[in-house]
Every structure is written in C-alpha cells, then in structure tokens.
Amino acid sequence: MIIIRILLLVMIVLLLAILTLGLLLGLPIGLGWVLNRFLPFSWFEASLLSMIAILSGGTLWFKLLQAIFFSDVDIGDMEYEYEDEDEIPPDRFWESEDEATWENWFRYLLANAVYEDMLVEPGWIGSMDRRRQQELSIRLADAAMAVLKRRAASAKQLRLTSKALKRELERAGQQPYEDELLNLTLNAVNAELVTLGATMQKVARRRMWNKNANVIDVYQHATE
Fold it and tell me: Mean pLDDT, the chain, as a whole number?
C-alpha cells in the first residue's frame, strides 16, 4: 500500500509539472499562432515575442502589486523587531568588549531566561508590553545575580530562594512584586543554574567577575 501511495504521489507531481510546463509553453505558442496570422513574423518569432511579452508583463504586474500593497513594509525592520522581541540584546548589558565581563554575561543569560518564560506565560505576565517584560526581566535577573554572587564561592549547590530574592529586591529599593512573577523568576533562574551553576562557582572562587569573557570562554568553562 505504501508503494502504491508513493507511485500515485509521483504521478500526481509529474502530471502537475507537465500541465504547468504545457501552460507556460502553450500560451506563448498559441499567441504566436494568432500573431503569425496578422503580422509578418514566422510562427517561431511570434511565439518567442509572446513569451517575452508574457514574462515581462508578469514581472511588471508583480512589481506593481508589490509597490501598492507592500510599499510601507521594511523587511529589515521586521526582522530586527522580531529579534528584538525574541531576545534581550547583549548591548543592554555591555557596550564594548571590555565590558563583556563574566558578571555581565551571567546577567545577560539569566535575564533572557526570565524573559523567555515571560513570553510564553499565560495571563497578565504574558500579555504585558514586550519592553516592559524586558525591563522587568533585567531588574529581576540583576537581583538574582546579586544573591548568587554572594553565595557562589561557598555554596555546595547554587540555587536561588524566594526569601533571598525578596530580601534583595527590598534592599535595592524595588517595589514589591507579585508572587506569580517571583515564582517565574525563581524557576527560570534555577533552571539556568543547572548548566551555569558550576561555571558561576568557578568564576566566584577565582574572582573573575570583572574579567573579560567571550562566548568561547563561557561554554568552555561550562563544559570543564
């Protein structure tokens, strides 16, 4: 049965290809035959002129419709907006290579982990404006990072707790956040620490927070 279905599919594809080719060739030939009756051209010349006219006309109509319906759409802007909404860009955490320190790398990774969870969270968190989500993600990740920096060097297993996060937010003068938002942050950060925790502890013990790091360094240390 499977072989029969495959053969039928192949036959349908071939039939469609033949019909398409026949249409592309038949239309110019038919128009060429008509022109041959009224103009001093051979059938071949008339068919060739018809094919050129059809292709040129189709291209012209396509560009005309594109100009009418898509003149205000900038594909480059669309791609940029999508990328900007899909990820908090690195330049929110460092503006030069010298500022791409281990601490800022961790801030970038944790903030994006929180942000990714916000994007898919149902209810009021997921329906917030994207810029608002990004700002909240950075603030919450920075508070989490402050807690983790103090614990990284001595902790056996690095994890973030609700109590420590709330205390850090109060210490930083942040407004109280809803438990739903705090729980989302805890889950996102602790999930990220499964792979980043050991690396963060190495950085803390070697006092490398302000040392420059790049992508290769981050993943090399993560796999050591």
Answer: 79
| Percent share of the chain, pLDDT over 70 | 66
Q: Does the structure show a pLDDT above 80 at 64?
A: no
**Could you give the 3-state DSSP secondary structure of residue 101?**
strand
Tell me which H or E stretch contains 129. Answer: none
- 3-state secondary structure (DSSP) of residue 21: helix
Integer Cα distance of 56 and 58 in angstroms: 5
Residue 136: predicted pLDDT = 93
Q: Is 102's pLDDT higher than 90?
A: yes
105 shares a domain with 135: yes
Q: Helix (H, G, I), strand (E, B), or coil: what is residue 173?
A: coil
Q: How many helices and strands in the chain, by DSSP H and E?
A: 8, 0
Are residues 124 and 53 part of one domain?
no
Q: Does residue 208 contact residue 149 with C-beta atoms inside 8 Å?
A: no
Query: 179 and 145 in one domain?
Result: yes
Q: Is residue 82 part of a domain?
A: no
Spatial distance between the Cα atoms of 106 and 196, rounded to a whole number of angstroms: 8
Q: What is the pLDDT of residues 155-170, one digit of tens each?
A: 888 999 999 999 999 8
- Domain extent, residue 56, equals 1-70
Angle at 199 between CA 146 and CA 159, to 5 degrees: 50
